[in-house]
């Protein structure tokens, strides 16, 4: 994080917007970094994966809080807006020189599913990067094990 000042700024903005999303992002980063280390990724790739995980939900800063924190079920249009957080993330991080392609793929592909049922691009199988597949697993795991 010290080498990438932009990361700290983005995370500070995310924490201000939604504390749960910030905590979830930190949790996903810790888990995904451990996953990468277990698979013996090199140090640079492991760091990039961890950075991508920290920023994977950065686009939620643009989702209205009344939708993001709505108790109960979301309407179809509200769920569509939540899904747009990946698009918003691409806009926020698109030209950031401190975000590697590996980190960007973690952010962009964390909701893609192996069977093609995910979003935003409905990628399937090997169309999803290995780090995107890993991020999808860890993102769901952290979400279902959180309070």
Helicity, as a percent range: 55-70%
Number of domains: 1
**CATH fold annotation:** Hypothetical protein af1432
**Rg calculated over all Cα atoms:** 14 Å
CATH class: Mainly Alpha
CATH superfamily: Hypothetical protein af1432
Mean pLDDT: 89
- What is the number of beta strands? 0
What is the overall number of helices?
8
Assembly classification: single chain
- Overall shape: it is globular
- End-to-end separation in angstroms reads 27 Å
| Major sheet summary line | none
**Approximate strand percentage:** under 5%
Low-confidence stretches: none
**CATH architecture annotation name:** Orthogonal Bundle
Helix-strand pattern, N to C? HHHHHHHH
- How would you classify the helix and strand content by structural class? mainly alpha
What's the quick description here?
With 147 residues, this protein is mainly α. Helices cover 62% and strands 0% of the residues. It is built from 8 helices and no strands.
What would your notes on this structure say?
This protein has 147 residues and is an all-alpha fold. It has one domain: Hypothetical protein af1432, CATH 1.10.3210. 62% of the residues lie in helices and 0% in strands. The longest helix has 20 residues. It is globular and about 40 Å long. The model has no long low-confidence stretch (mean pLDDT 89).
């Amino acid at each position: 994080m010290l080498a990438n000042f932009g990361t700290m700024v983005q995370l500070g903005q995310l924490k201000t917007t939604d504390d749960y999303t910030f905590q979830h992002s930190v949790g996903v980063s810790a888990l995904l970094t451990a996953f990468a280390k277990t698979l013996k990724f090199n140090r640079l790739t492991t760091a990039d994966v961890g950075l991508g995980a920290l920023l994977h939900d950065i686009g939620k800063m643009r989702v209205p809080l009344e939708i993001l924190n709505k108790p109960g079920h979301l309407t179809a249009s509200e769920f569509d807006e939540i899904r747009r957080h990946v698009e918003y993330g691409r806009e926020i991080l698109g030209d950031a020189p401190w975000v590697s392609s590996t980190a960007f793929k973690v952010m962009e592909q964390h909701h893609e599913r192996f069977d093609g049922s995910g979003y935003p691009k409905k990628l399937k199988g090997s169309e999803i990067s290995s780090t995107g597949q890993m991020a999808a697993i860890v993102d769901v795991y952290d979400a279902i094990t959180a309070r």
